[in-house]
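Batch job 17 of 40 flagged for manual review because the log was empty.
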Amino acid sequence: MTTQQTLTRVELTDAIVREVGLTRQESSDLLDRMLELVSSSLEHEGLVKLSRFGNFQVRRKAAREGRNPKTGVEATISARRVVTFKPSPALKTKVDGN
């Protein structure tokens, strides 16, 4: 995979079919369920730890003043929750190529 290529659900499903040997439907259902579990956990508990991959965490961002870059008009950006990702040392090493 090149750095410009996007990994899609279809490609992940195909990889599960190849690597695990499930049917395409079972693989798709497995991937959907796993993503639903991650999403649900982030929504309710705010933290997902995947060993040797990394941590997803929900953080709160406070309201702040911002500016529309086109018009320059100031506006209040409301408080919100955002998902952050911190890669594991193993993933960092793999990405770095060492």
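Reviewer: the log was empty due to a logging misconfiguration, but the result itself is present. The longest strand covers residues 54-61. Unflagging and moving on to job 18.
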